[in-house]
Every structure is written in structure tokens, then in C-alpha cells.
UniProtKB/TrEMBL annotation:
UniProt-annotated binding residues for Zn(2+) 1: 85, 183, 211
UniProt cross-references to InterPro entries, sorted A to Z: Aldolase_TIM, Class_II_FBP_aldolase, FBA_II
Residues that bind Zn(2+) 2: 106, 136
Molecular function in Gene Ontology: aldehyde-lyase activity; zinc ion binding
UniProt source species: Streptomyces alboniger
Residue positions of the active site: 84
BP GO terms, sorted: carbohydrate metabolic process
Keywords: Metal-binding, Zinc
Name of the protein: Class II fructose-bisphosphate aldolase
NCBIfam families assigned: cbbA
Amino acid sequence: MPLVSTGELVARARAAGHGVAAFNVITLEHAEAIALGAERAGSPAILQISENAVKFHGGGLSAIAAATAAVARASSASLALHLDHVTDAELLRAAHPAGFSSVMFDASKLSYGENVKATAEAVRWGHERGIWVEAELGEVGGKEGEPPLDAHAPGVRTDPAEAAAYVRDTGVDALAVAVGSSHAMTERTATLDHELIASLASAVPAPLVLHGSSGVPDEEIRRAIASGMVKINVGTALNTAFTGEVRAYLAAHEQGVDPRKYLAPAREAMAGTVAGFLGLLT
Ligand SMILES: [Zn+2]
């Protein structure tokens, strides 16, 4: 079916008190697995491509974005396209012609003042084109001119009052917050600060985004959504499923050379992971 917009999926989930999941696309098989998992779960989903994945594909947005969009359009599930962790202004501008309905603009390496300025500018640019803009805020109470800590660094937490000011001053449509999850975790052992999630949800008018959800156990994700978390980002869990199948096949078939032999079970394993996460959201 035609692509839907991220803003619409997030608004719909929020109104229903549900979550909506965004899964990272690295290869074509990731995109196919996300579509397959969404169809099986009967749920919408967001396919997101990170700036790092774009770099992996040689820096050009068009090929991986076009392939992902084609997979999404061919699916019977409601799927949206999101550009994740964008720091490069040129890549940000490429999002619109490539069919993305949303971007996550990541100015978290800048000082607080510069972060607000750059993000407000990105929001202005996006809103002129109907693009929904997500940003992230970790610890912002640092000294003048000092960069705020990465929202995904262990131990970092987002302050509700600062988050409310940040959303007001930048106009972002959604805010990624630091509440105990962290990127690239291969085991699901993270414990979230549910009291903080509830405080953030009541202080911040924009929907909240949980990055690093691969490391968060099922029950913690359910509780986070009940406390007000809306967009749930999942990347590493797909790669764990993918690589596990590839490794098992290659270990058992030392002479094997046909990539379809291991990419097919790898894609199937990712689809199962996608459907599993989607089952936690309602
Ligand atoms: Zn992230």
C-alpha cells in the first residue's frame, strides 16, 4: 500500500495509548523482514535508515532509500520511512526528495545552545516540507559551552524541565529521551526509570521516543508504553537475529557459497523478531 507518514503512525499510537515501533534497515533483507513481520503481526511499523547505514551504502541516500520504499509500498502493512540520527545537513536535505516523511536530527554532540539553534533550524526546514522532526536530549545541565552527554550513554537521564524547555524552544515533533536504555545492547537486560518516563510524559507535550530498545526486556517495554513512551526504536535485535543465522549456517557449511542459503533464514529470523516487538505495543 502507499507509504504512510511517521507523524500519523505516532499520533495514532499515542491517541490509543499504544506504542509504534521503528526498525533499522541496513540491508534489503532488513527491509523485507520488517515488512513481513508487520504483515504477520497486523501492525503498522516505521522503517528507519540511519546516517551510519547511509555511509555503509557509500554515502548516497537514493539506492537504499529507493529499495526500502519499494519494499514498503509492495507490502500490505502500513509502513512509514524515517531517516535516523542525521547530523549532516546535506543528508537532511536529501530526505525530502527520497520519500522520507520524518527525520531524527541529532545535534546531541553540540553544546545546549548550539543544539537548540541547529535543531530549531532543522525543524523549520522540515515543517516547510511537511516533514516530522525528532530530536534527542540527554543531560543538558552541563556547564556553558560543554557538550551535553549522549542520551544513550549509560547512567545519563533527561531532565523533565529541561526537556520541556527544549521542545518549546526547538518546536520538535518528538523527543528521544535518556531513561536507562543504551544503543547496541546485545542482551535484553536494561532497566528503565518508569517514574522518570511518567514525569517526562506529563512535562513534555511532544511524544517520547525510546532509543536502544533492543536491550530492553519485553515487560520493561510494556511498562514504558503504559508510562507514556510512544516510539520504540529497535536496531540491534534484528542484527543479532540476522547474524546468528548466518553464523550457524556458515559454521555448519564450510564449503557453502550461495548467500541465499543463509540470508533466507536470517531474514526469517529478523521477521520473527519484528513480529515479537510489534506484539508488545498494544
Ligand atoms: Zn538511536
